[in-house]
Specification:
By secondary structure, the chain is an alpha/beta fold. It contains 13 helices and 18 strands. The strands form 2 sheets. Strands 7, 8, 9, 10, 11, 12, 13, 14, 15, 16, 17 and 18 form a 12-stranded mixed β-sheet that branches. Strands 3-2-1-4-5-6 form a 6-stranded parallel β-sheet, with helices on both faces. Its EC number is 1.1.1.312.
């Protein structure tokens, strides 16, 4: 069902929903430019969204939305006495909030499989959107979200906070302007300790959970407790693994560093596995990925989640330059010159961002009704998310191989994979003789058509869009 027909049917059935306009209404008007915002998804990041937006001047929390009645009630209780939420309404279905013509914006902190659909519905309803990373759960729906933003002209800002950091922006502006040696490899790390989720048996959903709404577009065979409320990240139907969870931040920064005339990579491969935990999670807890852009620049990425004594926490980016230099840091940078093992400060000018941090910049853009003010707009979000999706797709098509059989045509990739494996061998305790990695194929990707080509293309193209449940279909890009 499309949103329009859902609302019409609901109204006819006494559901009380009335179709609002489907075009952006322009800059925020009235009440001294008060912005009325809804927050969808109230666990984890949803609480951060509430705090962030309530900390902004003249922002009203109009709706809080969650299909779990217990979570919804708990949130409403926490908001009691808060001036910014004095008129807040709690609802289970996001469409009820989007139908309110006085709502200006929605902030999306739901599970990943809902991100694009809510973004698209909100654009169609003329609402501005702050959407958590990753904006998309698959490649095809991300493109539809981009086209919806273009058509309806609303602000869409991605929840990648580093886009609001003028120091990070300044480094990338310097790289793009040729003020530094040319970038060779943009490297990202998502290495934070996590643990096994065990195995949860299929059972009936709890009565407090609207299972139909929680599933939304995702085709899920059976409910189990490892889905709700966080570990959905580690199942392909609902999440994208840590590569496009925490890693979305570092992937976005890495892609931001690539020359600005580049859109998507043309080749990618991934190697990894889910080691030690013996649980029902599907996504890798260890992964090394490589993506090459048409101009020869590369992104390399590490995921390393298995905890061990002496675990090194790494959630950051590095930049390898063609002259042999390496830049490290975040916002304030240091550089290792060729042949030197001593870092020296790298002085660069701050870059251009909309001020106010990720929350304040979004509110500024909404008040101005200017999508160009978004720190991390829909198109930039799409490019960063697709980078992770193509890496994940290579892994998902992979086959087991012993570590001694793993080879890369690129010497830099070989070196960095061997570093990752050395940590897994010496720290985690993977024995070379017994360890099988999942080795993904080198996939070819056409940046213009956003489809895979060449060997294994038919299989890879099946992963471009997830199956969708009736009533929650993603529209075609030309039909938003």
């Amino acid at each position: 069902m499309q949103r329009r027909s859902f609302l019409a049917a609901s109204a006819a059935a006494g559901g009380g929903l009335i179709l609002a306009g489907t075009r952006a209404s322009g800059a925020v008007q009235g009440a001294n430019d008060r912005v009325r915002i809804a927050v969808a998804g109230l666990n984890g990041r949803g609480n951060a969204h509430l705090s962030g937006f309530m900390g902004q001047d003249n922002v009203e929390i109009a709706y809080v939305i969650d299909p779990d009645a217990n979570v919804l009630a708990k949130t409403l209780k926490k908001l009691e006495g808060k001036e910014a939420a004095k008129n807040v309404k709690g609802v289970a279905d996001v469409r009820e909030a989007l139908d309110d013509p006085t709502l200006d914006a929605i902030s999306v902190a739901t599970p990943n499989h809902w991100h694009s659909l809510i973004t698209i519905w909100a654009c169609q309803a003329g609402k501005h959107v702050y959407v958590e990373k990753p904006m998309s759960h698959d490649i095809a729906e991300g493109r539809v979200a981009v086209e919806a933003q273009k058509k309806y002209g609303v602000v869409v800002q991605h929840g990648t906070q580093r886009r609001s950091d003028s120091g990070v922006a300044g480094l990338h502006e310097a790289l793009h302007a040729g003020k530094l040696p040319r970038l060779k490899i943009a490297y990202g790390y998502c290495c934070k300790p996590r643990g096994s989720i065990g195995t949860a048996k299929p059972e009936n959903p709890p009565k407090n959970l609207d299972w139909n709404l929680w599933q939304g577009p995702a085709v899920i065979d059976e409910y189990h407790d490892n889905l709700v409320h966080y570990d959905w990240h580690w199942f392909w139907e609902t999440g994208n693994g840590d590569l496009n969870n925490q890693g979305t931040h570092q992937l976005d920064v890495a892609r931001w560093a690539i020359d600005p005339d580049q859109t998507h990579p043309v080749r990618t491969t991934a190697v990894g596995g889910r080691f030690k935990w013996d649980d029902q999670g599907e996504t890798p807890n260890t992964m090394f990925s490589v993506a090459e852009y048409p101009n020869g620049q590369m992104v390399m990425f590490d995921v390393r989640n298995v905890n061990y004594k002496g675990y090194e926490h790494q959630v950051y980016n590095e930049y390898y330059l063609e002259d042999g230099s390496r830049i490290v840091g975040e916002g304030n940078y240091k550089i290792y010159r060729p042949g030197s093992d001593k870092a020296e400060p790298l002085k660069i000018e701050r870059g251009a961002v909309t001020p106010g941090g990720n929350w304040g910049s979004f509110i500024r853009a909404v008040r101005a009704n200017d999508p160009n003010m978004a720190n991390g707009n829909a198109l930039e979000a799409h490019y960063g998310c697709v980078l992770g999706h193509v890496m994940n797709n290579s892994y998902r098509l992979g086959e087991p191989a012993p570590v001694e059989k793993i080879e890369f045509a690129n010497s830099d990739a070989t070196e960095h994979f061997e570093r990752l494996h050395a940590i897994m061998r010496d720290g985690v305790g993977l024995a070379d003789a017994d360890t099988q990695y999942t080795v993904g194929p080198m996939l070819q990707f056409d940046p213009d058509t956003e489809r895979f080509t060449g060997e294994r293309a038919e299989e890879a193209n099946r992963l471009l869009q997830d199956p969708q449940r009736k009533g929650f279909e993603i529209p075609a890009a030309d039909a938003v």
